[in-house]
Amino acid sequence: MHIPVLFNESIEALSIKKDGTYVDGTLGGAGHACEIARHLGPDGTLIGFDLDSNAIARAKEKLTPSAIRSGGSGQMCKVILVQENFRNLDKVLEEHDIQEVEGIFLDLGWSSFQIADASRGLSFQEDGPLKMTLKDNPGEDDVTAYDIVNSWDEKTIADTIYTYGDERASRRIAKAIVDWRRKKPIITTFDLVSVIESVMPRKPWMKTNPATKTFQALRIATNDEYGALGETLEKGFERLKQSGRFAIISFHSGEDRIVKNFFRDKAHADLATLITKKPITPSEAELAVNPRARSSKLRILEKI
Fold first, then answer.
1. Considering its fold, how many domains does the chain have in total?
2. Measured between alpha carbons, how far is 30 from 58 in angstroms, rounded to an integer?
3. How confident is the model over 130-178, as pLDDT tens digits?
4. How many angstroms separate the Cα of 128 from the Cα of each of 1, 4, 101, 268?
């Protein structure tokens, strides 16, 4: 079951106007999107993004008048759903003749639906092909985790695991990957777990799996998540109306640093106001029902 993180805090952060236009750049399970829609009137617009066709399908099922209007059939906001990376926000807005928006929301965590889908190869807990891409059908030019571990040089692999995963054992892991692939390709997620555990055996007292940081790093690299986030921040801020808000939930230090620095720079340039001097984190009550939220941080910026 997918449980939206920092749910009420995120909706409050957007300060939703009934006739406003709002972007949910990360539909996922559509929990936040549905709540945004409930706060909008018939003159409002919700634009939802996701590269995952399954997420688009879930959103279509949930974003209906009967569901949004508590079983009624009253008018609801206009809904635009696009199977697209949020880094192309500007292109999508232009296609729909939308110049500015009142708010943009991003939940940078992977949805539980995607993690549980073994065919995507996102989790070290399920055996599947080493794809890790958000795209349903990656093309020849799209990088997959398989490409990274089987063709990148040892130094680049080590740097990737260290930079995106904060993994101190990155050099040992990269060497083990290269040694393994000389004998046979690393094809599945469990193959990669075996490689990692050959240099970092799992101990009973360990709180996290030794593969956690490496898988995180490969997901980030495969999907160019930092590049996409940087583009979206720039393009999104440009499209925000005066008093429009950015609300972003991050889950690890790298992406949070990107958001924090961007927000700080806009505030220092007197272009925006930091609504959150420090990030909002989950309450003990939320963590009790959703441990997945433990590393989440919500930052909010308002354009001047």
1. 2
2. 7
3. 999 888 777 778 899 999 999 999 999 999 999 999 999 999 999 999 9
4. 21, 26, 39, 46
